[in-house]
Amino acid sequence: MMDNPRFSIIVPVYNRIDEVSDLLGSLQNQTLKNFELIIVEDGSTEPCDTVVKSVKGIDVSYYYKDNEGRSIARNHGLDRAKGDYFVFFDSDCVIPADYFEVLSRELDATPADCFGGPDSAHESFTSTQKAINFAMTSFLTTGGIRGGKVSLEKFVPRTFNMGFSREVYERVGGFREMFSEDIDMSTRIRQAGFSVALVRPAFVYHKRRISFRKFMRQVYVFGMSRITLKLLYPGSLKLVHALPALAVLVGLLLLVLAVCFSPWFLFPLGLYLFAIFCSALVSTGAPVIALKAVPASVIQICGYGCGFIKAYFMKILLGRGRDIEEEVLIRKGK
Predict the structure, then answer these.
(1) Between 127-137 and 287-311, two packed helices, what is the crossing angle to 10 degrees?
(2) 304, 223 in Cβ contact below 8 A?
(3) Which has the higher per-residue pLDDT, 124 or 263?
(4) CA 150 to CA 143: how far, in whole Å?
(5) Which residues pair with 38 in a beta bridge?
(6) Which of 85, 143, 281, 302 has the fewest CB neighbours in a 10 Å radius?
(7) What is the structure's pLDDT at 209?
């Protein structure tokens, strides 16, 4: 066991044996192993303990607990971590071999209390996974808010590739069990006066969802959770967060106008989808991925936008669903 690792990697797991195997393999191949790995099994019916026990060459600890949610699982790992920094990956990530070498170098050059990096698609991923990755990272679909080179919003670290110092944890506390818990955590860290940095060279390969149906559900929840975050942090909602909802409303209006008056009203939609195809083709160099990027981008925008609209209508306009008093209790950590 390593006495004083610089980094403690904490990964919550729920029924992801194959993904954990790929993650562990990538961590075994790190060029700099100044870390410990903590796997927290969150009540899985198919535990990955056998896979974890077969790992050689890295300091790894495995904990099994009852299913309570990924945030509580991360906090379980935080309580047992020994590192100076805590690093969080999702179980569906694959880590480039020089990740910790790059991260160590960047933090030595420019120290930061909290940091995060972008994600990308590995060459081994399916064409659908690569198309979904494009939809989640392209400026045309998300405004570059996930670490893109051009962004409409200040960078917010997310738990597929995020870390913070022990001092941050001691002052701010752990994750809250809620949707978009990483955005909530990043917001609390920034509000506490800590520095937050994008370490662009420290990227990960993120598999994301393996089907459009699962992807639709994921982004729908993302859209709803953005309104929860607005209730928690009234000044946090920016124009970029509302753009998918506006796109859904404008798209519906254009469809109605096309049916009632002229098909030419569909031209702006067609032009936008063509731009997505061209951008994906340039980005990936693969026509199949570019073709799949079109429906993936439509799902990303419509799923998020519909979740945003529903939550805004229910929680803001009608004051129903999760009420504001509950939001305040979450904000206070109760």
Answers:
(1) 50
(2) yes
(3) 263
(4) 8
(5) 10, 61
(6) 281
(7) 67
